[in-house]
Amino acid sequence: MSSSDDNVRIFNVWQLTCFGLLTTPLAMAGLAMAMYLPTFYAVDMGLGLGLVGAIFVLGRLLDIVTDPLIGHWSDETRSRFGPRKPWMIAGVLGFSVAVYLFLAPPDTIGPAYLILASGLYFLFYTILDVPYSSIGLEISPDVHERSLLAGSKAIFQVVGAIVAAALPFIMGYSIGEALHVIAYAIIALCFIGLMLFLLFVPTPARTIDSPRLTPVEALKSVLSDRRYRYLLVSFLIVQTANSLVAGLMVLYVVHIVGAAELVGLFLAVLLLSSAAFLPLWIYLSKRYSKKTSWMAAILLCAFALALIPLVGRGDVTGAIILSIIIGSTFGSDAIMPTSMLADIVYEKEQEGNNRLGGLYLAVKNSVSKLSFIVPMGLAFPALGYIGFETTGADGPNAMLTFLFFYSALPILLRLIAFYVLKTGPDFIVVQKRDSAIG
Known about the structure:
mainly alpha; Growth Hormone, Chain: A; 18 helices; globular
């Protein structure tokens, strides 16, 4: 919580909208990449699941390296337009080309095309997203307004994901046709979002006179902050738990609930509930603290996951209720760590330190991407070994194995994260009037 009640907010609703809108095309691209493109390239384009899977995993591993580098280079950029905007402009231009190549390929391609298109996609996604999201950490001097900024991005992220998920079904398109339309929509929204951001989002500048840091020096400075280390560990644990639930949700709906035709509905429920409950988590963060709000969400999700074994085949209503509760906590998992990170970054920059917001965020992004790789390397091979994809929950020990990965392990991880946060340092910062952004 803030130690000052001074009103130092600088954003109105329109400015929050202009700030968050650029998240929509990024979310559309992210969902298309996760939901449509693996199958499209493997089956429709005939490249095979093994090859496509390997290329996509390598792309994610590349992100873990490029994210911190681009974050650091963005921090160290010194121009009359500030450090972030030149990267955002270059990112929009490059990302637009990459999206078209990736989502709208020619009829006949080979592995080299996918490597090139996906590599450009992952690279320019980072070049656009890291500097853009870094601004959200630095831009407001108000401790609670930082939660609103994170909330704005979260809402537009949900909008983008829903649009990309629903478009093929609403328009009656094939996946290939839908990907073309999604590509054009992403490109248009990127330029619209960038224009509105540049015109209406206030970004006061902070002059940096201190010597430049090498990537290693900057990384050491970032990781030397005890609060950041606790935040990073907690975030990694929670995201790992969430990746298990999100990654196995389709199998849960199809084989446990027995409602394959409702997979889209369950996805929509998760996304919409994560957005609908954002005001609750922001209220709790203002009433108590951001850490308390996040810990409450962690426990609530663990409680809902503990009820999963009680939902049997055909109990669609019970499964949807639990999905609403679980989805509602995803919003807190998204905005509270980001807002807490913004407090740390703002406080550090007020002390006159080097600009490090991009690197702080990029390391957090790398952790998030790593968390989605590791669980899938555990859960999917184990379920594949027992033949879950063919026998479903009727195979020997199949139900127990699935519930371990979908319920028990995420509960355990969330309780560990709760303990780490509870025993870790406080995240209370001093609010100051002078705003700072690089």
